[in-house]
C-alpha cells in the first residue's frame, strides 16, 4: 500500500491512505496559497484541528455536499452539527480512535480555538495519525512545548510543523521542536500565506539539516511526498 501527503497551502493537507482521502484543516476559500477550491474536493473524512477560520475553512460546505465524516474535538463537532453537518466523530485531547483510514489521536497544542462566529471551539489540537505505512504528526497551530518529546516517542515518520511565527512557532522554535520530536522527515507549514508569516524556508531547512538527523522536505502548495 502507499500513503501520500499533499500540501494544499497554509495548514491544509490531503492524505491518501488505505484507499481513502482525508483532508486536515480544509481552508480553500480566502486562502491565497490554496491550489484547489472547496468544490473540487470529495474526501472520505475531514479532520479539524481547532476553531479558527483558517482551519475550519470550508469544512461545513464540503461535509454537507459530500457527507464525509468530520473528526474534531467535542466542541467543534457540536458546532458543526448545529451548522447542519450530520456525520461527525468527536474525540478529545489524548484520545485515539481507529477509523477506516487509520488511527487518529488528538494531541495538545498551545493556541486558541474560537470558532468563526465566536462560539467556544474547546481546546486546540494537534493530530497524530497512524497509517498502515507509517506515522504522521501534524502539530497544527501551536507554540513550542516540551511534551513534543512524548509525541516523538511514538516514532514519527513525518512531522508537519508551523514555522510562520506571529501566530505559531517561528523558525527557531520549530527547529527546537524537531530536536524534541526527532522525526525522520519534517515538512514546514503555516508560512508564506500572507506577508505577516513569510519566512526564509530554505534557511530553515539548512539549519534542520546541519543541526539534526531529520530530513527537511520543502513542499510547494500542491506538491506531495510518499510516506
Ligand atoms: Ni489558529
Ligand atoms: Mn492558523
Please provide a brief summary of the model.
With 227 residues, this protein is an alpha/beta fold. It contains 6 helices and 14 strands. The chain has a single domain, classed as Metallo-beta-lactamase, Chain A, CATH 3.60.15.
Small-molecule binders here are: nickel (II) ion, manganese (II) ion
Shape: globular
Low-confidence stretches: none
Query: In which range does the helix fraction lie?
Result: 10-25%
Structural class: alpha/beta
Overview of this structure, please?
By secondary structure, this protein is of the alpha/beta class. The chain has six helices and 14 strands. α5 runs parallel beside α6. The model has no long low-confidence stretch (mean pLDDT 97). It binds nickel (II) ion and manganese (II) ion. The site of manganese (II) ion (MN) has 7 residues, from α1.
What are the salient characteristics of this protein?
single chain; 227 residues; alpha/beta; Metallo-beta-lactamase, Chain A; 7-stranded mixed sheet; 6 helices; globular; binds nickel (II) ion; binds manganese (II) ion
Amino acid at each position: 500500500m502507499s500513503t501520500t501527503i499533499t500540501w494544499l497551502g497554509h495548514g491544509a493537507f490531503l492524505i491518501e491512505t488505505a484507499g481513502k482521502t482525508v483532508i486536515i484543516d480544509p481552508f480553500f476559500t480566502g486562502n491565497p496559497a490554496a491550489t484547489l477550491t472547496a468544490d473540487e474536493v470529495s474526501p472520505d473524512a475531514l479532520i479539524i484541528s481547532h476553531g479558527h477560520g483558517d482551519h475550519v475553512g470550508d469544512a461545513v460546505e464540503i461535509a454537507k455536499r459530500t457527507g464525509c465524516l468530520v473528526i474534531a474535538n467535542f466542541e467543534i463537532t457540536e458546532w458543526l452539527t448545529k451548522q447542519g453537518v450530520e456525520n461527525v466523530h468527536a474525540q478529545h485531547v489524548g484520545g485515539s480512535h481507529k477509523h477506516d483510514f487509520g488511527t487518529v489521536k488528538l494531541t495538545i497544542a498551545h493556541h486558541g480555538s474560537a470558532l468563526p462566529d465566536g462560539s467556544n471551539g474547546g481546546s486546540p489540537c494537534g493530530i497524530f495519525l497512524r497509517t498502515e505505512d507509517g506515522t504522521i504528526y501534524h502539530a497544527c497551530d501551536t507554540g513550542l512545548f516540551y511534551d513534543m518529546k512524548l509525541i516523538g516517542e511514538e516514532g514519527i515518520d513525518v512531522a508537519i510543523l508551523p514555522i510562520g511565527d506571529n501566530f505559531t512557532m517561528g523558525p527557531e522554535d520549530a527547529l527546537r521542536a524537531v530536536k524534541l520530536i526527532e522525526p525522520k522527515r519534517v515538512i514546514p507549514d503555516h508560512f508564506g500565506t500572507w506577508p505577516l508569516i513569510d519566512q526564509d524556508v530554505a534557511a530553515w531547512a539548512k539549519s534542520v539539516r546541519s543541526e539534526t538527523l531529520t530530513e527537511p522536505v520543502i513542499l510547494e502548495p500542491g506538491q506531495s511526498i510518499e510516506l
